[in-house]
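Q: Could you fold this chain for me?
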Amino acid sequence: MYRLSRLKYIFPIGLFVCLFLDGALSHVWAPLFFSYPYSMVSELVLLWLVLSYFFQDDIEIPLIPFAIAAGAVYDLYFSGILGLYIFLYPLVVEMTKVLSRYFSSSFLSMIMIFFVDIVVFETLNYWAYYLIDITNVSFGDYLVYTLAPTLALNLIYFVVLFWPIRALYRWSLDDRQI
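A: Sure. Below is the predicted structure, expressed as structure tokens.
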């Protein structure tokens, strides 16, 4: 059904826009996002992937291959090497699938699942960089100065973008034939 819906165009374009906006917002708002000792990480790609899972209806978008592709692009563009994101994006999609089995698909359940996704994603990212000595920030400082601001920023993204993205998905699912 995915190939017969408008989502075959809307989803990849939205994913690309989110990839672009993650970098652009981080660059434009760098003085706000990265003001010592705090740092906020924009995760619009995660937001798009998580909300796509909830809004896809019975279309079944191939989220894992798209998550792997988005992770590869993110890694190659921002770090120049294949790294964590190629594994963490699909992991978050799978974790969203598992968590959504236990909760209804209400706004509060979705925001809670997104909250858990961000915590796991950012913490695994922190631990990986800590293990290979790229960062030497203590776990307490990470929680206060990185994770908390990142959660605040991305939960604001969720609240602001939830209804426009839901409307976009409803529009794209309205007429399944192109």
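A (continued): Residues 2-174 form one domain.
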